[in-house]
Batch of 3 targets.
Target 1
Amino acid sequence: MTQAVRHDSMRARNLGVVLGEVRRSGPITRAALAEITGLTKTTVSKMVGDLIEAGMVAESGALRDGERGRPGTAVALSGRRVAALGLEINVDYLSACVVDLTLAVRLRYTQAVDNRRASPVETLSHLEELAHRAVEEARGEGLSIAGSTLAVPGPVDGGLVHAAPNLGWHDVRVSDLLGFPVELDNEANLAALGELWFGSVPGDFLHVSGEIGVGAGLVVGGTLFRGARGLAGELGHVVVSPDGPACRCGGRGCLEQYAGQDALLRAAGLAGVPELLAHLQAGERGSLEACQRAGQALGVALTSAVHLMDPGTIVLGGVFAPLFPWIRDPAHETMTSRLGVMRRAVPELTVSRLGGDAATLGAAGQVIHRVIANPWSHLATTRP
Amino acid sequence: MTQAVRHDSMRARNLGVVLGEVRRSGPITRAALAEITGLTKTTVSKMVGDLIEAGMVAESGALRDGERGRPGTAVALSGRRVAALGLEINVDYLSACVVDLTLAVRLRYTQAVDNRRASPVETLSHLEELAHRAVEEARGEGLSIAGSTLAVPGPVDGGLVHAAPNLGWHDVRVSDLLGFPVELDNEANLAALGELWFGSVPGDFLHVSGEIGVGAGLVVGGTLFRGARGLAGELGHVVVSPDGPACRCGGRGCLEQYAGQDALLRAAGLAGVPELLAHLQAGERGSLEACQRAGQALGVALTSAVHLMDPGTIVLGGVFAPLFPWIRDPAHETMTSRLGVMRRAVPELTVSRLGGDAATLGAAGQVIHRVIANPWSHLATTRP
């Protein structure tokens, strides 16, 4: 390493330390930053200057410094310039959102499309249009997009979607088919991170994403559990009944075949979720029974998940959020009757406030968290 | 904090750093230790002196120091004085082992006892006898026991076994019933740690302990995954068939009801594992079919576990180790047919070399790892 490279890497690390502390502490003076980080006041002032110039931090008025009593000008994270694009391809919709550096949601689009009837190229071209629209509108508000993450309903390996059986995708190299750079991640993982950063549940939970597929993301101590190859959390393919109906994954009797959106609508004899909700509210028996059975199957799969993963609480999101009043009780009763002896308490079942937006928000949030952890590489790309 | 306390806590930390480095590096000179740890040579020499006096480290001959070329006397971990006691209560046996500071196994006892026919007090009094025998024999070899951990077949909360349904234990406060201090942990967790420290599988695996109960411990990146409340890994109660036979846990159709040792022997119409092995080796049909069905049930439960936890490899231990030649294929075929589409590769099924000893070894290993991480508190208790 040359002297210059070493110096840059030290500056990069310190810049991350300073910005991280600004995020944690809220409005804070340069003097307090120097004291907390152990850096000199001169170094901190220079770095804060760079961060202000990059629009990542802004002065936020005078603040009296605790013990010393000398007022200083405080700085805080600024949401006025840097933002991130979150994208999602799911089986029956596309969505996009823009989140700024303070994690404020600046815009959100969802578009219903049946992506099963489209080729990967067509779907990705629709997504590209949606992304461009979002980026243009964000630019109109003075925002500059630092990066984007795309949530897909299947396991991901670098830029490749290995298998998204509900989309009919196999080995789709998304990075080659999109006209802009994007990070890929699994929808259920990003939904769990969305719940962690934008939701109301503290740091230990299993977030269940009910869509046409059913996925889950486990957060323990504020960290997403990904397993050895990043493929953990496929709750939708947990075996509910070993000789049950065949699933697109190649297995039989997977949870998706009982509680996935399509399976549920089929059991209720209905075409869409709004119709199902209307029937449930009207107390229509077939729909109530379909939800009862889906909730029981969910309870069986969650019993296995609780025994294996020991989550703090369980948060139901996606389509399970609007359906919560009808599936909560059968799922909870099934879990209680099966888990009661082994555990003092069965994990609580709660509902996500984010519903179907969790994955798109998590996707954007992931970019913001990376920028805050490593502002130097962001500065390097935005400088002339 | 007083000056003296602060100084002690700094010494304690540094002592752990020095001993940890000795363990990692093998024979190493004091000069090299000073260079790696950043401590002064005087400090390192004083600490090495204390560790030699405590019998935790010993001089191991001259070693030439890489660049400098000046030979120095190397020190290495010593197994001659400090040791740990590992204990296990399982449904049909008790066991004890003594492991020294270098993780060499110094002695091992297993005693077949049907603990279902005994009260917790009786079982713990048997265990106490076994422990005393082990400690006496270790003393005869000049070893001093730094601590002990006890593996139990059920979830643990501090000194309390909340529920070990296969033993018939509910809320047994072991710490009050044993005449010596012991740490409690779940058998499946300790077996996974035993595999990590004493086995042959690298750092990403799910270790399955087949006993009368079936448990599992997941190791990711060399760390045991415990879940939010320390209750993760209860593979034996993963639902194989939701309407299957009732289980002692309160559920139905749990894996234990198909592949636990009792269920397997019942299906084969035999009384013990040695008999079952003899029948299998003789190609007796009923026993082969019983193993086939147990292997398939294990494959269904592992399919759910792989989808949820994404382990690197799967290591079968306990009674599944001697039965491996007969249950591996049905389990692997079941997993392959169910997991194939979603995953490029199904996790490999391997056999533990430790068999039924994994938990007892993990229990002793846990004490040794704590002593090495914090030798100061060990010195404090052994000093006059």
Target 2
Amino acid sequence: MANRRDFLQILSLGAGLTALSRATSARAGVLSSLPKSDRQLRVALMGLGSYATRVAEAMESCQRAKLVGIVTGTPAKAEAWKKKYNIPDKNIYNYQTVSQLKNNPDIDAVYIITPNSLHHQHVMQVAAAGKHVICEKPLADTAKQAQEMITACEKAGMKLYVGYRLHFEPHTREVIRMREAGELGTILFVDNTCGFKIGDPTQWRLKKALAGGGALMDVGIYAINGARYGTGEEPLWVTAQEIKTDPVKFAEVDETITFQMGFPGGAIATCSTTYNFNNLGRLYVVGEKGFAELDPAFGYGPIKGRTHKGPLNQPVITHQTAQMDGLAECILDNKPDPNMTGHEALRDMKVIDAIYESIRKGGQKIMIG
Amino acid sequence: MANRRDFLQILSLGAGLTALSRATSARAGVLSSLPKSDRQLRVALMGLGSYATRVAEAMESCQRAKLVGIVTGTPAKAEAWKKKYNIPDKNIYNYQTVSQLKNNPDIDAVYIITPNSLHHQHVMQVAAAGKHVICEKPLADTAKQAQEMITACEKAGMKLYVGYRLHFEPHTREVIRMREAGELGTILFVDNTCGFKIGDPTQWRLKKALAGGGALMDVGIYAINGARYGTGEEPLWVTAQEIKTDPVKFAEVDETITFQMGFPGGAIATCSTTYNFNNLGRLYVVGEKGFAELDPAFGYGPIKGRTHKGPLNQPVITHQTAQMDGLAECILDNKPDPNMTGHEALRDMKVIDAIYESIRKGGQKIMIG
């Protein structure tokens, strides 16, 4: 069985390792249009699971972001990371000492990669400690939580970004560019899917108290975010259906959800997400003038795609390298919003709230506030 | 604007014309395993619209089927077809003389290609005249009608097939073969879409009295049939949502419908159909062991596809040639059921009934009888 670490890699249908080797040159391509400064964003990673490992490795190729600190509840991990990344003792925290970050002038931002349901608490703590926040998706369990986190960061004067790494991914950016340039015409239809077969039945992703929800929260959010950047609009309404074929494994969280959204310009999105099977990670956007398809669309790469004009041949990059360099420029140089702010994440959370509400109400159409 | 004649051709993303030129050799490939006899099925076409024109042209390459008669209400068409296809006067009928087919020993079968809502009446008439029936899809407006048509043909001792041409299409057959051989593993998910942007707002397809319904009846049925041959199972339930962005053009029939189905083996299908945009014609089947994708899946060809093993490179054929040769063998040589019988169509009609019922009931889950 594939575990989650493998999942987005599986979606790439191989060749994922090439992304790393091509990262440096490709990243230069993505960021070449942006002005450079010498300052680096000094980042602490909070939550040293498999994704944090991936981020740390990707950050070794960063130009504008640098891993300088960690927050972990596991002393053995602290020791290992300290050695591997040459992290000074004064930049090593645990979950009881997070508030002390405020006394550390050598850390600019904390990247929160803890289990999803802990994001709310951790963002509030990091904001209170006066550090900028990068938080993995989903930002929160609910829109209400997300709003509280945004407000807390704003009050603290700290920036809040969410790890929607695809907004720095060249194929994704090209689809957005084409749509914005009108090359697809008025968008009429989106068919997005994202899911994988979850492995270890004891993992936190299957516990509601840690995960907030199931496939929808974890990876269905890619389909939602993709429908929003595929249309460039906010959905007006949603209908949704939940299917559970394994009520034991998925006793606490959703297994498979299908949902539909309506957009102001007339576009309809139909989306599916699951923890029950692989080979599900496609973005498909149809406009009056053409289409764009990314498949795999949401994995760690390589992203592949085509449009009505032919194959999309964009640079293959390491998403996390590009994201961290890109967000460093947003934070340090006040670069424009890359559609990865807390406000963007709040919009996804409103959709997630509405999807769960529609399911509770038997598939009823829910207007999104 | 594309008209419907262009639609399935558009889905092919070009190269459609090559299908004709390759038809003979490819057809031989499809049928080579079947024993041959010299008898030809002598066919009359009823309803000489654009699709009948396509069928007639395709039949010029047939080995086992021959166009020998026509039924048309338009004298000018009768004259033109008589000349083009050398049809004897005694084999030319209009809608008032259909019953006289029973006195014509030179016609074995009638292929009914009239507007959808007329299929019921015409199948009943042809069966009563003692001729085998091939009827375009959808077989009927409702499952009740379809059952009546099946019963009438059975009582008359006549065979009833429906123009589900893809069951003779090599890429489609290969996907079915892989699924039956277990190469995809247990099927868990299907994502099928079929639609096109309808042109002329005055055409019969937009009139409920002639069309029975809209996109769902006309092309959504491909997504339904594809979910059935993709899983090899009959759906247990359906949920459905209708979206209408142009209530004037689509005053009488459905414009866009999304629907979901659940299957006994645990598979879920999510499908979409529309009359409102192009670039929608994909079959996607995910099993525990792999996937199969056809895109374009439902047009007149060339059908293209891939699986987890790589590209599907099957012969490109003219679907209508293969269908008519294949059905000739079913009728004349009692070849096994090619999943194109009235009973097969009845199962699709039960799903269509349930989809419309779910829409009427606000997306409620409808069990399929």
Target 3
Amino acid sequence: MGVVLNMDGKRNMASVEPLIALTQEEMGKVNELILSKAGSDVELIPTLANHLISSGGKRLRPMITIAAAQMFGYSGEGHVRLATSVEFMHTATLLHDDVVDESDLRRGKKTARMIWGNQASVLVGDYLLGQAFRMMVDVGSLDALDVLASAAAVIAEGEVMQLDVAKNLETTEDEYLQVIKAKTAALFSAAAEVGPIIAGVSKNERAALKSYGTNLGLAFQLVDDALDYGGSAKDLGKNVGDDFREGKITLPVILSYRRGSEEERKFWKHAIEEGASDDAALETAKSLMTKYNAIGDTIARARHFGEIARDALAPLKSSPQKAALTEVIDFCISRVT
Amino acid sequence: MGVVLNMDGKRNMASVEPLIALTQEEMGKVNELILSKAGSDVELIPTLANHLISSGGKRLRPMITIAAAQMFGYSGEGHVRLATSVEFMHTATLLHDDVVDESDLRRGKKTARMIWGNQASVLVGDYLLGQAFRMMVDVGSLDALDVLASAAAVIAEGEVMQLDVAKNLETTEDEYLQVIKAKTAALFSAAAEVGPIIAGVSKNERAALKSYGTNLGLAFQLVDDALDYGGSAKDLGKNVGDDFREGKITLPVILSYRRGSEEERKFWKHAIEEGASDDAALETAKSLMTKYNAIGDTIARARHFGEIARDALAPLKSSPQKAALTEVIDFCISRVT
């Protein structure tokens, strides 16, 4: 079964609440550890780090790590540190991303780089990455270290790929999927996989959680892409049309461009490649997306990956964690439907 | 005994040659590993990485790792990977530094950011850091991982500290030493310490090599600071006066400012804090440094740390590696004397 529909505005939607409830105790410890490990005698570091850390991200990735460890009966404290490492890797990536994308807003607040500059954002990102690795070392699992270190390299690789395809409207859907698999899905994948690793369970369970994370990450990113042309700034914590104004190649653009007429493709080139992306152009872009059902089909693609994530978990024995992680798939997709 | 003097231009100076000779075989493997691990299907990554990697750095840090492992009879292959990790961490730092400092030249070549942009430099730095951690994980020593991960965090911390003191002429010598201890000496220290760690020797030897690395790193940075007001661009691979033009606070500036008259301090404020740092101002700066022996005293400070590095190694039993590492101290200092 696919997405649970939101009818009449009632709260019968798929929800992240079960995951939050299951991981509440450990996430309290994660939050403490975040504050302590983002600390430094160099005041600018905690100030800048906390600006982003306290800005209301959902902490989906660390919750996945916690639940994926609980699921296999893990009873130690290592998952708290690994979850914190995952969140730090995510935060470091956001800090560097905002510099690379020259973004002004993130989750409805000014980006760190707008307040403290690009330089501090690059360096505090580096610091958080170093702290993340220190925590992983503390946990002492070389397997978990391998998965997370590889993810760090792959994420950076994905970001460079994205520079490569930047403003190139001829980018294929396959090429774009490769980019988001690296830049977004790799961390979801690692976050999920380190759960069974630290719980010491078999290869099959590792593979299941890894596949779950990868496909959830792909779905998550595609929904994000759709939201950028659809939701309201309040829901998003970012301005609708940010991707468009930055000339970013995302799936709704790729589909609209490929399906468009010669003349429509000229519009896209003008807007994305030459930067003619004012409000009027954004309206045109949205109407072309409607004409070719580019948003609807982006969400359909997200659902496809959501189904794969669901099936990845299917053979595992029933547990509240399995149910919560499965519901999160629908939750991610229902942000936009 | 201090520095071996260079008389009549003859090659009787302290030299890095013994260290090069001792580590030649392993450094060949390090170079292969560098090329392979800087590789990626994303072409921009090896292109950008190799621009910097092949630009003729001395590879002092990885040579130190190799020699420090050899010294204790290590016979495996792990030191090659750790040495490569150290060089990647160094390269990643340089890529991010050039972005943070907005530098145009590095080792006499255009910086990567001038050719491929700040964005790519940030991201390829992240990629190399991720690859460095993967190699460390391959080696499998949690102790070595701990030392290098801590160094990564401390280096970033030092760079943020440097932003903090940027253009602040009231920075004390102590504060400045704290900055360079973190941003430069931490990696020398880690490079040296992982040698005995992987060779599995006792705490005392680890402490000796760690202290050697730290103090060599401090001496190295202070000599670099002096060279920026002294050497020729050809020797340096950078423009003399780069630090001055960027308004960087380094020890020669700190000493000249603190020793100067009220009026001379006004000159420094104008030059460093307000950016009035043209060629004429550089000449004035140099003459004030001569007046107060700021370069000579910076080198004297470097010698002081060099002596501590020498004494750190002193109790270890004689070996070609000990001799070569000791000679490198004088080599670093004699770059400028």
